[in-house]
Amino acid sequence: MRAVQYREIGAAPEVVTVPDPEPGPGQVLLKVTAAGVCHSDIAVMSWPAEGFPYRLPLTLGHEGAGTVAALGEGVQGLSEGESVAVYGPWGCGTCLKCAEGKENYCLRADELEIRPPGLGAPGAIAEYLLVDDARHLVPLGDLDPVAGVPLTDAGLTPYHAIKGSLSKLVPGSTAVVIGTGGLGHVAVQLLRALTPARVIALDVSAEKLELAGKVGAHETVLSDENAAAKVRELTGGLGAEGVFDFVGAAPTVATATAVAAVEADVVLVGIGGAAAQVGFGLTPFDASVRAPYWGSRGELVEVLELGRAGKIDVHVETYGLDEAPEAYERLHAGRVNGRAVILPNG
Ligand code: NAD
Ligand code: ZN
Ligand code: ZN
Asked: 239 with 331, same domain?
């Protein structure tokens, strides 16, 4: 089959032919209908050889949807041809966190070397994808896999981030979204669907701010050195009760903490690697900072329900498998508005 692989440190991803995977006992083979392109892959492909955590070559793609092509021995509850979405943050399935459905926080994944597809295990930007266990699949039903596939990360990750702060986002509150790309433009919609908060969106790109406004942001602010002062002004000097940073670089983390209100949650989702300064006198009283990762299995079911109900609508650009390297280039250059989705069998 054909697959898109990151093969060598520092090299661009390539379309290659690899052996067709076959499902072993308990596994499920999917014919991939759609696979999303996430900025985390750009980060992975910028990491140095020293300490690089995955084996190369690595088939990319950690947002996947497909139809069941073959069932391994013993798999029940799924039928061939069924349309499913893949829950990506695979865990061991038996530790306390996994038992709670929070496989994203599996206590044994490192020890057992369990890796998500596209982030260690072979990923979804390929004609076929091997899924290690049927519990990592959620039926899509009549939800369009192309619009639905980004919900497995670009939807699930902000959903998990926002859900943890719902108690702060009461009537009269403000939520700030920094970086309204793939994840951020879904975050704006989730905030509108789940909370009565006023939503202020920040980005460096006028095009992305326009999309943020279109999908529900009440205010849009250019993310520059004056952004924090503007957000303060828009909130009568009080700041925002929920701040969601989908960049995580030094300037955005500085803005995120600078716009926090008393008792605010500052949620760092972007993996830009910057640290927040928290301390008495440095941050407003009782402000908290969190850095969550992906989401739980239950939350994926919930976010897919929101998609099915039409409460969130991911803005997608589609590409063929051969165009996947170009999609990564465009994402790297900041030219993807919304989410790029690869159609490996399209
Ligand atoms: P994206 O490229 O689609 O979006 C990033 C957005 O940030 C773009 O709109 C860009 O214009 C904007 N931006 C860049 N610099 C900015 C600045 N200084 N101020 C404001 N906006 C700025 O990327 P994505 O796929 O949505 O991913 C967003 C981030 O989330 C990445 O760092 C990614 O690695 C990370 N991520 C984290 C998790 C997690 O579990 N924590 C999961 C998925 C993605
Ligand atoms: Zn991702
Ligand atoms: Zn576990």
From this structure: no
Q: Which two tokens stand for residue 244?
A: 């969601």
- Cα–Cα distance between 111 and 187 in angstroms, integer? 32
Q: Would you say the CB of residue 247 lies under 6 angstroms from ligand 1?
A: yes
Residues 266, 289 contacting (CB under 8 angstroms): yes
- Cα angle 24, 28, 30 (rounded to 5 degrees) comes to 130
What pLDDT band is residue 18 in, cutting at 50, 70 and 90? very high
> Is the shortest distance between the CB of 40 and ligand 1 below 6 Å?
yes
The tens digit of pLDDT for each residue in 297-327 reads 999 999 999 999 999 999 999 999 999 999 9
- Is ligand 1 within 6 A of the CB of residue 294? yes
Read off the pTM: 0.98
Same domain, 244 and 302: no
Tokens of 166: 């719902």
Q: Give the three-state DSSP class for 5.
A: strand
Which of 272, 290, 308 terminates a domain? The answer is 290
11-19: average pLDDT = 98
Q: Which residues surround ligand 3, an ion (CB under 5 A)?
A: 91-92, 95, 98, 106, 108
The tally of domains found in the chain comes to: 2
Q: What percent of the chain has pLDDT over 70?
A: 100
Same domain, 148 and 160: no
Supply 56's token pair.
């190369």
For residue 22, the domain's CATH number is 3.90.180.10
Q: How far is the CA of 179 from the centre of ligand 3 (A)?
A: 31
Ligand 1 neighbour 267 (Cβ under 6 A): no
Q: In terms of domains, do 147 and 213 share one?
A: no
Q: Which tens digit of pLDDT belongs to each residue from 87-101?
A: 999 999 999 999 999
Domain range holding 320?
A: 2-153+295-343
Per the CB < 8 A criterion, the answer to whether 176 and 195 are in contact is no
Residue 346 has pLDDT above 90, yes or no: no
